[in-house]
């Protein structure tokens, strides 16, 4: 009897689900994710790449590792695993192509390997790195982007001390090159000159290349002055596709007649989110095929000569639809609310669609959409099933002028109705960006970790955000730190009125334009925030214009004016102007090699606040990092400092800055 009872109890114990547990900051920043996917011509065989971040304290500093898998039905086959790095995977027939720097390679080269397995073979190498490539339909030609051979005299002179840099004048263009793989000598031929080539692709059914070009190699011209054009194999211009402002992805229909382009509505549109189709049979006539779409188109893929699949982000959700060329009518394939789709892949003449997508429960994974049935293909982090997940939802609220706004709320893990919690408000950058109601865990917003510590989190899509059409995305123009940042305070007040948030325990953080908001919240709006963490943010809008690499874009789609047109206005819309008011403890962090928002922006605010001496302030610089931390150690360090600052001032009641040391050495 006792033996039988023991067996019953043991069986019951084994049947119990595993106890949910907390997530660590290290786990937050080292989750794996699927970062690309391609579909073979048969519509069944797929390939995807999975990113594995380095292990903090164990691996040397560097970028993430990648693995390549193929998948057919339920069968996954690993092709490249281990500590590898490669990019731009594509199919051509039964062959996989990719870019990598392997073995004795001095530069990134193009490789291929059969889908049946075997060793990778080098297809094309060059005197410099290959940035991207395209393969002709018959497989004979390869087009790629690369720079010419570096000038050896420069390196010789540099050794002698001649290292002068002429700012913004030493253009090193990236050109388009063409290789005939059937020629006696496989020698790349340069087909463009005196312009920056930003993309290259073959036009189906003709010996022509589609290239996106800009007049200089400056990032500002990439953003604001690029153009799509057709050239022949000799580099001679064939035709152009008229557009203005920002440009996104472009893709020809399988027969080469239509060119679909994601572009801006006009020169002052903050983002490329409109969908246009050019008809080459009608002298490249352009049609706005989604004229009233109150969202932003993110990706496109042709499934037939007359059917274009498009992915849109609308509000905090995403959707996938199919558009016919005959009537320019769309039908829904994946409704909003299912997942947050990132991009899509389709094969001409095939039904299935690959979708990379994430949700509040998991980072980006691979899904297959077949006959409107969604199937999950990958599970990169099975351990997440054991993690306690906080409640996450989209809310709407009204700004003080009546404008309806959206935001995403994450509740504390042990949320109890009627209890007021400390809040961390996470403000997105851009401002031409938006938050989707999916996987929000980042090193700058460790959602689940913070929720476990008893914090509520709020991700506001303030006016000027994308995802709600062109008109909404322009509402913040010519109003730096105006109504757009009042929207943040109104969102905070809404959460207080809901009974969720303690009004005296609200922190604000964000990067870039979100860093600007964090600095503004700590100075001009200091009465609303009890702690701030500013990352790669703006403190002086006058000097920002003079030190950024996107001055043209700033004027066209943000400021809509120049500093010399209203010096005082620009000064008053700068956090340093309000530094004397600051009573909000602020932690300032910045990549030391940032060219978008120069580190001097953080140094200025730090110096002003330090000199006034009325509030705790600390400046942390990250050597080797730019406009955002890319390496895992710098990301973990940032997360630890962020959470310690918020805990110290919002929960522990700290008055002075916490110690600057972190327990890194304890983990070595």
From TrEMBL:
Keywords of this entry: Hydrolase, Signal
Keyword Signal: yes
Signal peptide extent: 1-20
One function term, GO molecular function aspect: serine-type endopeptidase activity
Matches recorded under InterPro entries: 6-blade_b-propeller_TolB-like, AB_hydrolase_fold, Peptidase_S9_cat, WD40/YVTN_repeat-like_dom_sf
Peptidase S9 prolyl oligopeptidase catalytic domain ranges (all copies): 447-649
Pfam family, one: Peptidase_S9
Keyword presence, Magnesium: no
Biological process terms in GO annotation: proteolysis
Residue ranges of the TM segments: none
PANTHER family to which the protein is assigned, alphabetical: ACYLAMINO-ACID-RELEASING ENZYME, SERINE PEPTIDASE S9 FAMILY MEMBER
Record-given protein name: Prolyl oligopeptidase family serine peptidase
């Amino acid at each position: 009897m006792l033996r039988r009872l023991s067996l019953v109890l043991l069986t019951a114990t084994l049947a119990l689900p595993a106890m949910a547990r907390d997530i660590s900051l290290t786990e937050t920043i080292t989750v794996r994710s699927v970062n690309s996917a391609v579909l073979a011509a048969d519509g069944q065989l797929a390939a995807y790449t999975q990113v594995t971040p380095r292990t903090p304290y164990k691996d040397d500093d560097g970028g993430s590792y990648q693995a390549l898998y193929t998948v057919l039905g339920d069968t996954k086959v690993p092709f490249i695993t281990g500590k590898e790095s490669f990019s731009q995977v594509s199919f051509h027939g039964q062959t996989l192509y990719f870019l990598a720097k392997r073995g004795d390679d001095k530069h990134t080269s193009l490789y291929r390997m059969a889908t049946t397995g075997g060793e990778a073979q080098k297809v094309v190498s060059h005197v410099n790195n290959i940035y991207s490539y395209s393969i002709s339909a018959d497989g004979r030609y390869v087009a790629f982007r690369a720079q010419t051979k570096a000038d050896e005299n420069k390196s010789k002179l540099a050794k002698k001390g001649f290292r002068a840099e002429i700012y913004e004048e030493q253009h090193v263009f990236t050109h388009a090159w063409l290789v005939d793989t059937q020629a006696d000598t496989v020698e790349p031929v340069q087909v463009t000159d005196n312009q920056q080539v930003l993309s290259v692709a073959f036009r189906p059914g003709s010996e022509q290349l589609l290239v996106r070009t800009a007049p200089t190699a400056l990032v500002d011209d990439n953003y604001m002055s690029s153009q799509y054009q057709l050239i022949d194999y000799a580099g001679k211009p064939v035709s152009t596709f008229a557009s203005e402002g920002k440009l996104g992805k472009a893709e020809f229909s399988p027969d080469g007649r239509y060119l679909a382009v994601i572009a801006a509505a006009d020169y002052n549109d903050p983002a490329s989110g409109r969908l246009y189709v050019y008809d080459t049979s009608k002298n490249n006539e352009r049609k706005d095929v989604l004229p009233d779409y109150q969202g932003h188109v993110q990706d496109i893929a042709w499934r037939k000569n007359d059917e274009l699949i498009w992915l849109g982000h609308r509000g905090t959700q995403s959707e996938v639809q199919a558009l016919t060329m005959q009537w320019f009518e769309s039908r829904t394939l994946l409704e909003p609310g299912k997942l947050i789709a990132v991009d899509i892949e389709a094969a001409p003449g095939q039904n299935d669609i690959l979708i990379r997508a994430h949700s509040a429960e998991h980072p980006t994974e691979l899904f297959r959409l077949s006959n409107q049935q969604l199937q999950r293909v990958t599970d990169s982090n099975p351990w997440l099933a054991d993690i306690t997940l906080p409640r996450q939802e989209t809310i709407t609220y009204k700004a003080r002028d009546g404008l309806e706004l959206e935001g995403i709320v994450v509740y504390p893990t042990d949320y109890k109705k009627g209890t007021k919690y400390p809040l961390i408000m996470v403000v997105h950058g851009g401002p031409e960006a938006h938050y989707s109601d999916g996987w929000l865990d980042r090193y700058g917003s460790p959602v689940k970790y913070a929720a476990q510590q008893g914090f509520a989190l709020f991700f506001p899509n303030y006016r000027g955000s994308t995802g709600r059409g062109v008109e909404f995305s322009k509402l913040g123009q010519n109003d730096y730190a105006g109504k757009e940042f009042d929207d943040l305070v109104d969102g905070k007040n809404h959460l207080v009125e809901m009974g969720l948030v303690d009004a005296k325990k609200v922190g604000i953080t964000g990067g870039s334009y979100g860093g600007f908001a964090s600095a503004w919240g700590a100075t001009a709006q200091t009465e609303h925030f009890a702690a701030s963490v500013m990352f790669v943010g703006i403190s002086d809008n006058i000097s920002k214009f003079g030190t950024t690499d996107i001055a043209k874009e700033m004027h066209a789609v943000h400021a809509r004016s120049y500093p010399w047109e209203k010096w005082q206005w620009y000064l008053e819309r700068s956090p340093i102007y309000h530094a004397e008011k600051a009573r909000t403890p602020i932690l300032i962090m910045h990549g030391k090699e940032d060219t978008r928002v120069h580190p001097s922006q953080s140094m200025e605010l730090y110096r002003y606040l330090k000199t006034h001496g009325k509030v705790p302030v600390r400046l942390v610089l990250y050597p080797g990092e730019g406009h955002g931390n890319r390496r895992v150690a710098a990301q973990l360090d940032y997360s630890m400092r962020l959470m310690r600052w918020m805990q110290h001032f919002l929960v522990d009641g700290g008055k002075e800055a916490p110690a600057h040391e972190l327990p890194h050495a304890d983990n070595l």
